[in-house]
Design brief:
Number of domains: 4
CATH superfamily of the largest domain: Aldolase class I
Mean pLDDT: 93
Radius of gyration: 31 Å
CATH topology of the largest domain: TIM Barrel
Shape: globular
CATH class of the largest domain: Alpha Beta
Number of strands: 39
Helix content: 25-40%
Low-confidence stretches: 558-569
């Protein structure tokens, strides 16, 4: 298995390579999901590629963000430059960028980012259609699911990559709008503000005050650690193990990658020492997440959202700004220690000499601490990475030939098999010594000086890696040997990098010549759609004038009786209006052993039929529904933010696209001007911020995890943040939680502009409404639509609502 390491800067790259990474992923200054990392300029990236490739390490470039309408050509140009500089692969989220790279840079290797939310077989098929070589799977999968998907990927000639260690997102990757809608910093654009790490309270609508919990960080997961599961991941078919951490330090990268390298190479189980070192590198507490099918509270770090470190002892005495701690392990000078007091946490550095286990450490502190307070080490100075720009050096074997009457020759070789390379340099004809002849030891002592280069002679002693063929009585200047050595090493380096040097940018952007659709005309008709999650709101919306009622299939399922796996009632009998449009959710796991989908014996796809209208909220769902021949509409959980993505969906057979809520009015206009398919937009009601595999209602305590019959689900819940803002929580029949913005969307005031642009369908989401509110909202939308179409006038925006990103955009 490949060990894939993160690098947020050049030092972290060197740390990863020194620790034994097989490949490193990093971002350039644009279009990557860690824009707050140092990242790499194009020039610095070329140097990074040379450094890594000389040492047999691959470089993958992250282009794993949504690409906005005016950015696509720039993103492709950047990819072309990176490919010419040596990129081994590109990690891509945006389906439009993936498709365009496949056309204009087909020689590049495409890896699908976890941000594309691939978690089922249809997603693997999508990746294959895009020409991908690898898929980074969603982190919410079990080992059984990984096994199924890796086998399928192999049938398509692809690999699967899985996250092995590091921070977890509580939300399905690529589906989170929380940071975006709260503060305008989009996780899908590389600027996540980590709102999930903040404190929240869980409330029930029918009770006063917060529900009890083990802590206040109700959206903060522990860190993933699979060091004890590497054999199982390999048996499941994972080709690459990915370490998270492009925002982490070089110390972290070197320590974590080094430990995984040790365990992989030894083929032995991880030790307690390995686990302790991993915890000390950085830990919010460890979990294996969903790999074993677990979805309970031990995935979460309710108590604190940041590094826990390793327990080193308790305070036994304080006086004059000095805390005394009996050390339970060896402490080192410059260790960073964190004190946990009843007034909060603070850190202090151990100055002076180290302290052995069992001895008393005297630590100067600037804040109050008391007897019994716990102390944790959050940085082990002894494990700090020491940066050496040329490390690790590349082992080479050398040969010096000084034969009378022939040109002096120095040759170096490196690698084996396909990676074998040689470099040589020739000098003047070798002559007899006029004064003093050189010895073999003289030659070795001047040719084996490789200190300023990336190379080192292979062997325990320099003599073992350097062969000297020397005639008797040879005379040669040492400066000539130095010059030949340098030229031979330069030649070797160029030979090792030759496969990359032969590249050019390899693509020509047909900006003007590519066929562009005529785009959309001002809407003469506009469908009014109501999204309803219960029969009462569905009927109320229909009576209020909605043209279509869209119902999530998981809610459609609720209200139906089931005996021995056979449905006993239709949707109409369960109270929904006739001819509802079925909506397939954004998260749709295959019914693999252990999944809720298999346990429920309810196949969503029974309702997706040829010629029938269906709403799908994932790219994988679009692939599957189009294959059936359904009239497919793609929802806003698929981040369609550029014309190329629209083209991909149109070619797939999609008949309408509901646009991303992260687009501005101007960007919507740009897309409509070239869109080959009709466009829709949600204009009123609830806005979903997150989908989580872990049930957020479990923070009040564990449950039986019989989700469909769960009593907690029958009562409305909400999270409340520090500022008192509400975030309603709904958990579906599979135990997945859906978190909503507590401030309703209201874009009715711009409806005339949307119709002028060409938007031909609008949606009112009644998820958080009762029947009367649903009726009122749909009735208001009907009046707004009619007023906009007949008189080009708008209704006023309601107070305490938001227009989302229509005017402010995202960072």
């Amino acid at each position: 298995m490949e060990l894939l390491a993160p690098a947020g800067n050049a030092e972290c790259l060197r740390a990863a390579v020194s620790a034994g990474a097989d490949a490193v992923y990093l971002g350039l200054n644009e279009f990557n999901a860690r824009r707050n990392a140092d990242n790499f300029t194009v020039d610095a990236f070329g140097e990074a590629c040379d450094y890594a490739h000389l040492r047999g390490v691959k470089i993958y470039v992250t282009l794993n963000v949504e690409i906005l309408p005016n950015e696509l050509d720039n993103a492709v140009e950047l990819a072309c430059k990176a490919h010419a500089a040596g990129a081994d692969a590109f990690i891509v989220q945006d389906v439009g960028l993936a498709a365009k790279l496949g056309r204009v840079l087909p020689q590049a290797h495409l890896h699908i980012s976890t941000q594309m939310n691939i978690h089922n077989a249809a997603g693997i098929e999508l990746a294959a259609r895009l020409g991908a070589r690898r898929v980074t799977l969603a982190r919410e999968l079990s080992l059984a699911e990984i096994g199924e998907l890796s086998a399928l990927a192999g049938d398509f000639g692809m690999q699967v990559e899985v996250f092995a260690h590091g921070a977890l997102c509580v939300c399905y990757s690529g589906q989170c709008l929380m940071s975006s809608l709260i503060g305008g910093r989009s996780a899908n654009r590389g600027l996540c503000a980590q709102a999930c790490r903040l404190p929240y309270e869980l409330h029930r609508e029918d009770m006063q005050g917060a529900l009890p919990s083990e802590g206040e960080h109700l959206l903060s997961p522990r860190d993933l650690c699979t060091v004890d599961m590497l054999d199982q991941l390999q048996r499941a078919g994972a080709a690459s193990l990915k370490v998270e951490g492009r925002m982490k330090s070089a110390d972290y990268v070197h320590e974590v990658v080094g430990i995984y390298r040790e365990v992989l190479d030894s083929r032995l189980p991880a030790t307690d020492e390995h686990r302790s070192r991993l915890a000390e590198a950085f830990s919010r507490g460890f979990t294996t997440a969903y790999l074993t099918g677990n979805r309970g509270n031990d995935i979460m770090s309710y108590g604190r959202p940041n590094n826990r470190g390793v327990f080193v002892g308790r305070v036994v005495r304080t006086a004059d700004g000095v805390a005394e701690v009996v050390a339970e392990c060896d402490l080192h000078a410059d260790d960073v220690l964190e004190f946990w007091t009843n007034r909060g946490h603070f850190t202090a550095t151990l100055n002076g000499a180290g302290v052995a286990a069992g001895e008393v450490a005297r630590i100067h502190v600037e804040q109050r601490t008391g007897k019994g307070d716990r102390v944790f080490r959050v940085r082990n100075a002894a494990a700090a990475y020491v940066d050496e720009p040329q490390a690790p050096r590349v082992p080479v074997r050398g040969r010096v030939e000084l034969v009378l009457g022939r040109p002096a020759r120095i040759m170096f070789e490196a690698g084996e098999g396909a990676s074998y390379a040689t470099g040589e340099a020739r000098g003047p004809i070798v002559e007899q010594a006029r004064t003093k002849a050189v010895s073999a030891q003289d030659v070795r002592s001047h040719v084996d000086r490789l200190g300023a280069t990336p190379f080192v002679l292979d062997g325990a002693a320099a003599a073992e890696g350097l062969e000297v063929v020397l005639d008797d009585n040879v005379g040669i200047g040492f400066s000539q040997l130095h010059r030949l050595r340098a030229e031979a090493l330069d030649a070797l380096q160029e030979a090792m990098l030759a496969p990359y040097r032969e590249r050019d940018e390899g693509c020509v952007l047909a900006r003007a010549s590519e066929n562009k659709p005529n785009g959309l005309q001002p809407a003469r008709e506009c469908e009014l759609v109501a999204w309803a999650t219960n029969p009462g709101c569905a009927r109320a919306a229909k009576r209020a004038g909605a043209d279509f009622i869209y119902v999530p299939l998981l809610n459609f399922r609720r209200g139906q009786a089931q005996v021995a796996g056979v449905r006993q009632a239709t949707a109409e009998q369960a109270g929904y209006p006739k001819q509802c449009v079925m909506a397939v959710p954004a998260v749709d796991h295959d019914p693999v052993d252990g999944t809720r989908e298999l346990q429920a014996r309810f196949d969503l796809w029974d309702y997706v039929r040829e010629g029938k209208r269906v709403f799908v909220d994932s790219l994988a769902g679009a692939v599957r529904a189009c294959a059936v021949g359904a009239f497919v509409e793609v929802g806003p959980h698929v981040p369609v933010t550029n014309a190329e993505s629209l083209r991909v969906l149109a070619d797939m057979g999609v008949r309408r696209v509901w646009l991303s809520p992260e687009l501005t009015l101007g960007q919507i206009a740009e897309l409509a001007a070239v869109s080959p398919v009709p466009l829709g937009l949600a204009v009123s009601g609830a806005q979903e911020l997150m989908i989580t595999e872990h049930c957020l209602l479990m923070s009040q305590g564990p449950c039986a995890q019989v989700c469909e019959a769960c009593d907690r689900r029958s009562v409305a819940h909400k999270l409340v943040d520090r500022k008192g803002f509400d975030f309603p929580v709904y958990t579906d029949m599979f135990g997945r939680s859906h978190l909503y913005n507590g401030i309703e969307l209201d874009a009715m005031a711009v409806l005339p502009d949307l119709l002028d642009i060409g938007i031909s369908a609008i949606m009112v989401d009644t998820t958080l409404m009762d029947r009367k509110s649903a009726s009122d909202a749909v009735g208001r939308a009907l009046r707004a639509r009619n007023l906009a179409m007949s008189e080009h006038r708008a209704v006023a925006k309601r107070p305490n609502t938001t227009t989302g990103h229509l005017f402010r955009g995202v960072s």
